[in-house]
Design a protein that fits this description.
alpha+beta; about 30% strand; 3-stranded antiparallel sheet
Length: about 60
């Protein structure tokens, strides 16, 4: 895992099309903005895990 330190307003570029910008730093959280093409799906990790769990559950129920 790559770990970077950024300040408010600074950004990180991933490839040619994705930019992550630090918007706000709070006591227990960081607010980020993500600029990416519409065809790139962006999900919070907990939502992604929920989708995976539901898909696996559907496969089991479908047997």
């Amino acid at each position: 895992m790559l770990t970077l330190t950024r300040k408010i307003g600074e950004s990180i570029r991933i490839g040619d099309n994705v930019v992550i910008v630090v918007k706000k730093i709070g006591r227990n959280h960081v607010q980020i903005g993500i600029e990416a093409p519409r065809d790139i799906k962006i999900l919070r990790e907990e939502l992604f895990q929920s989708i995976l769990a539901n898909a696996e559950e559907g496969e089991i129920d479908g047997e």
